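Hello forum,

I keep getting stuck at the same step: I have a sequence, I want structure tokens, and every attempt I make locally crashes halfway through. Rather than fight my setup again tonight, could one of you with a working pipeline run this one for me? It's a single chain of 167 residues.
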Amino acid sequence: SPASKPSRVLDALHHAERVLWLGAHPDDEMSSSAFLARAKDTAGTLYMASLTRGENSDKVWGGLRRGTPMGKAREALFAKSASVFRADGYDLGPFVNGPSSIEELDALAPNASFHDWTSSATSDDVITKWSQEGDPVGYIVALLRARRPDVVISMDDYCGVSGHDEH
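Reply #2:
Ran it on my machine without issues. Output:
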């Protein structure tokens, strides 16, 4: 009945015991940080997951170059973020952020220019690339089965200021 359906996003949390935040990259959770804090306080159980480790960052972090070293650093930051939000667990997916493979990113020279998706890339291009690295739908289904959330908080490619196709 219409009376039993949540009328606002926050209302959905009042009927949830388990919440899963799902993003594309470590640091995406910052776009919904106030909502994550509310989710933990209201529902009680919060899980966080990122489909990638953010290996293809356009930022320079302490001299780290793109690829595995950047992914490990961002993985550590995601673990810290999960701790700050008092998450009951967090997961990192097997997919590589950006249009390049992890092997291609690891082979880059330290001063190589940043290469992201082209302006004509779509979410379908991301799914095609990630499907070469694994099964994105299967990964999300396994995550949902393991964490059993009542509510999933996620992003879309219109979220925030980035409009990133991986969202």
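The mean pLDDT is 88. If your local run keeps crashing, start a new thread with the error log.
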